[in-house]
Amino acid sequence: MKVTIFGTGYVGLVTGACLAEVGHQVMCMDVDTHKIDRLKDGIIPIYEPGLEPIVKANIDSGNLLFTSNAEEAVSHGQVQFIAVGTPPDEDGSADLQYVLAVAESIATYMSDEKIIVNKSTVPVGTADKVRAKAQSKLDERRVHLPFSVISNPEFLKEGAAVNDCMRPDRIVVGIDREGETRGKVEATMRELYAPFCRNHEKIIFMDVRSAELTKYAANCMLATKISFMNEMANIAERVGADIEQVRQGIGSDPRIGYQFIYPGCGYGGSCFPKDVKALISTSKQLGYKAEILESVENVNDRQKHKLFEMICQHYGCDPKNPGDTLRGKVFTLWGLAFKPKTDDMREAPSRTLMEQLWAAGAKVQAYDPEAMDECERIYGNQDGLHLMGTPASALHNADALVIVTEWQSFRAPDFNLIKEQVADQVIFDGRNMHEPSQVMDKGIGYYGIGRGKAI
Ligand code: NAD
Hints:
It is a single chain. By secondary structure, this protein is an alpha/beta fold. The chain contains 17 helices and 14 strands. The strands form three sheets. A six-stranded parallel β-sheet has the order 3-2-1-4-5-6, with helices on both faces. Strands 11-10-9-12-13-14 form a six-stranded parallel β-sheet. Helix 1 links the parallel strand 1 and strand 2. Helix 4 crosses helix 5, helix 9 packs across helix 11 and helix 11 runs antiparallel to helix 12. It is elongated and about 75 Å long. The structure holds nicotinamide-adenine-dinucleotide (NAD). The site of nicotinamide-adenine-dinucleotide (NAD) has 26 residues, from helix 1 and helix 5. It comes from Microbulbifer pacificus. Its EC number is 1.1.1.22.
């Protein structure tokens, strides 16, 4: 099947590569010509495990094409995916300008029937806006061409995106039209996704609005689990309980489960913060106060300050006004990406911490296995930032070690080296990667999240 994908970010590029891998003929379009030029040469703009080989293989086989020419892109695919960004507007609502620009491009250049599939995360009702935008362009062109607008939200996780795309838990498809058109669109989507449903049916068909809300409901549920555990961790700390023991105690209940109940220094990334905000905003516009979601966001904002608060507690200063206590101190940061196996630093807790440390006059020596270039891009000129080539070199002449992202490579560090290199012999562990007693037995101070009795 011939497929066009607008947007070659995490979602568009991974989707395009996976559809090409199973045999579809895919053309990816992006307005970022530099990105497209590099992709044509097989240079992947993001770090995503397993992505590079399938992009390269499918460029070579001719199944995966790249263009920045919208007309060429529109004429290629019978199915036109929208996978562009939907960043938060100032009031937290999703900014739809990129989505609607793609709708306009499709209607500007289409000369036969198209199925427009929206994969971007968009507020309920966006399909109607996409349809109206495309229709008004067709009217302006004075042409009569049939098209459908359907919703197919994406559930892939950065860091496991290729696997999630090749082996999805479910594929949600929202279609509104009745009768023959619906049958045709449904059949096309079944054919498109058949290679991913070989063992059992994974497509869940529903109406468009329900599909649009399904995506927000999923991300808000996951964000809620994280904020809930962070709240429990903060309580555990105060009552002298260890959240890690509590986590095991509740995870063993199958109604709760072990997944996604890890306390830490807050969620980040390009999705949870913006999607929680967007659903709060949608609710507000409709006169409903989304109390749980507002709390989820507030708890997370507070949690992102947690590491700095622990640091201030250790050094005996007020986090709101640390004075000169931290001035000149050197903090090693292990981990910059918002989670492991990605180079994405959007809304990462590391950014909140680094900015607080710099404001207090401290210095940062940071190492991340994948996000160094991204950090350089964001903070390249920042005074007090040194990007180091290895976890060990980042410890050199440091005063304290802070673990911000739970990369596997930080799981079994050389504690003797830490003790030797880190002047104040203390670890602030924002991801509870280590057992407090093990670290403290080595003669190193330890602060974790919600580890009350254990510390
Ligand atoms: P991204 O910012 O990584 O990429 C978006 C791309 O779209 C950019 O390359 C940009 O140049 C391009 N673009 C902008 N306007 C365009 C236009 N008119 N035509 C063609 N290309 C255009 O975004 P992303 O992380 O891939 O997310 C895309 C959407 O998918 C968002 O709505 C996001 O919420 C959603 N989503 C993201 C993830 C994730 O893990 N990143 C997961 C599920 C859903």
